[in-house]
TrEMBL record:
GO molecular function: iron ion binding
Record's protein name: Beta-carotene isomerase D27-like C-terminal domain-containing protein
Organism expressing this protein natively: Citrus sinensis
InterPro entries noted in UniProt: D27-like, D27-like_C
PANTHER family the record matches: BETA-CAROTENE ISOMERASE D27, OS08G0114100 PROTEIN
Highest taxon of source: Eukaryota
Domain spans labelled Beta-carotene isomerase D27-like C-terminal: 154-230
Length: 243
């Protein structure tokens, strides 16, 4: 990823027909964060997590799929190839694998890798079945938002369902992710665009992800059609040089 600027710029307000309304903080899911405050560490600092067996099992499954596309580890601090029964992947080693997948690949190639990995984790015919079970309705959007919080904690960390307004209609189909990676390239190419594209194209359920590069949080909005890359504010977001 080429550093476009030595200054961290303010992320512009997305021009989407949407507004986000937070619920009371006592409803925030806090499990997994090992910080004494129960909140993510401040911007620029690594957050400590206390992942359980199931979190590590899912991270291991996903990371092993990613390893097939990753360049070899170059140092002892990077993830070494693990045996099939080794559930030793934690969040940091999962991030290491993602970084090695990015090496030597263009933006489009990185996104295609994530798409292939996501498809490889699903049983045959899963996208078609998903389309039948969850047509692009308000109910489907709200249901998938509710599922994201407990079932994808291992991937996105602590999150909460929030109320959003899409084209003038309020619905609880937003998911506020408390903290994500501090790497702009990883956010955009390994998470935001491939996830949006996967849900919108493969599953037929529109999804827009709105990262906040000021506090490293992110909003997932089910039911919101994502803009094109050229029209998305993240297309002009420079890399961070001090994180």
């Amino acid at each position: 990823m080429v550093v476009l600027s030595l200054q961290v710029v303010r992320f512009p307000t997305p021009p989407y027909q949407i507004s986000l309304r937070r619920q009371s903080t006592d409803k925030i899911t806090r499990c997994g964060i090992a910080e004494p405050s129960g909140e993510p560490a401040p911007l620029g600092q690594k957050t400590k997590y206390n992942d359980g067996f199931f979190e590590k099992a899912f991270m291991t499954l996903f990371a092993r799929k990613m390893e097939k596309f990753a360049s070899p580890a170059k140092s002892k601090t990077e993830t070494k190839k693990k045996r099939w029964f080794d559930f030793g992947y934690d969040y940091e080693s999962f991030v290491d694998v993602s970084k090695r997948v990015m090496e030597g690949r263009s933006r489009q190639q990185q996104q295609e890798v994530v798409r292939e990995v996501l498809l490889s984790m699903l049983p045959p015919g899963a996208p078609a079945q998903f389309r039948k079970l969850f047509p692009p309705t308000k109910w489907a959007a709200e249901f998938n938002a509710a599922l994201t919080v407990p079932f994808f904690h291992w991937l996105v960390g602590p999150s909460e369902v929030v109320e959003v307004e899409i084209n003038g209609e309020k619905q609880r189909s937003g998911v506020h992710i408390k903290k994500c990676s501090g790497c702009v390239g990883m956010c955009v190419n390994m998470c935001k665009f491939p996830t949006q594209d996967f849900f919108t194209r493969e599953f037929g359920l529109p999804l827009t992800m709105i990262p906040n590069f000021e506090d490293m949080s992110c909003e997932m909005v089910y039911g919101q059609v994502p803009p094109s890359f050229e029209d998305d504010p993240v297309s002009t977001q420079p890399c961070f040089t001090d994180i």
